[in-house]
Specification:
Elements lengths: L2 E4 L2 E4 L6 E5 L16 H8 L7 H5 L12 H13 L4 E4 L10 H11 L2 E6 L6 E8 L3 H14 L3 E4 L6 H17 L7 E4 L18 H7 L3 E4 L14 H13 L6 E3 L19 H12 L4 H16 L4 H4 L3
């Protein structure tokens, strides 16, 4: 299967185990200055430390600086819990708000937890095991990243714009992938992060858009559903059940080998230590649920880590370049 570059060095892809394909782990946003026109109560809530009594408002999206701050201790506890649930590997990508954690910091976390960590970057650092994530709206950056991926044999991650409505999202992906083609990278070496956002219907919270999954698959990339394990609220647009159904549909269409999964935790309240489902959600809840819906062991192993491990394995120049 090949070799995966982790922050602790090369690792046989066949032995990597379960994989979370798009996480943040560490995030330290810049504090806001002043109240920014907020009522005093909302401004106080934004600056308060996360505690159990705040979970309702946090789940509904109330802004809070501490909730958006994931420190090394938070990451260490989350990885320890993940390790106890079966471990494997975590792919760490920039969340677009802060710089990605250093390779040295991630190596320390990997050593402490026993969980392998693959770091996304621009491909210039020997510790980079993946290139990206590049926003799909940045076509020039996508082309440059594709050229680097083709040279290095690394896979490329493109991040879907979570704020775009469906038609705009598909258009952005199409333009980004044209740039990837121009950069000489085969589309089967590309991972589309946040694929679930393209499945939302035109009316929020009313289910998936019919035909959207098939349109996504036509792009020829791997699809990463990376917002799994959220406790549902009235603002939930795509439920974990609908993602599970989409995974089964991918398998029916012969594309089960192109599905990757992650929790995409970017808020403290989603960690187990603060009442959430944590990084272990996919291993302990989603994969068994897929089994209940009829997914066989081979499919669960593939989407739970096998597909990601294959993509993370460094390709030869011939394999990485578009034909």
């Amino acid at each position: 299967m090949g070799v995966v570059t982790t922050v602790l060095g090369p690792m046989d892809a066949a032995s990597i185990g379960p994989v979370l394909a798009a996480e943040t782990l560490i995030c330290e946003p810049v504090p806001t200055v002043g109240n920014a026109g907020l009522p005093a109560g909302d401004a106080a809530f934004e600056r308060a430390p996360v505690r159990m009594s705040m979970l309702g408002r946090l789940m509904m999206g109330a802004p809070n600086l501490d909730d958006r701050t994931l420190g090394p201790i938070d990451a260490a506890i989350a990885l320890e819990t993940l390790g106890a649930a079966g471990g494997g590997a975590v792919v760490v990508l920039s969340d677009g708000r802060t710089e990605i954690a250093s390779a040295a910091e991630l190596a320390r976390l990997s050593s402490l937890s026993g969980v392998s960590i693959v770091r996304g970057g621009d491909g210039s650092d020997p510790a980079d095991g993946l290139i990206g994530a590049i926003p799909v709206g940045e076509a020039a950056a996508a082309r440059a990243a594709a050229e680097q991926a083709a040279r290095t044999g690394l896979a490329l991650a493109l991040a879907l714009d979570t704020g775009s409505e469906s038609s705009a999202a598909f258009r952005s992906v199409e333009l980004a992938l044209r740039a990837v083609d121009d950069g000489g990278l085969a589309r089967d070496r590309v991972i589309l992060i946040g694929a679930q956002h393209a499945l939302a219907g035109s009316h929020p919270r009313l289910g998936t858009d019919p035909g959207a999954l098939e349109r996504l698959l036509e792009f020829g990339t791997a699809l990463c559903f990376d917002d799994l394990g959220r406790i549902p609220t009235v603002r939930t647009e795509i439920s974990d059940h609908e993602i599970a159904v989409a995974i089964l549909r991918c398998a029916q269409l012969g594309a089960g080998h192109r599905v990757l999964l992650s929790c995409g935790i970017r808020q403290k309240h989603r960690l187990t230590a603060f009442g959430g489902n944590g990084l272990e959600f996919i291993a302990t809840q989603l994969l068994p649920y897929l089994g209940m819906l009829g997914a066989d062991e081979e499919l669960r192993a593939a989407v739970g880590g096998g597909n990601a491990a294959r993509l993370l394995a460094r390709a030869t120049t011939a394999e990485g370049a578009a034909q």
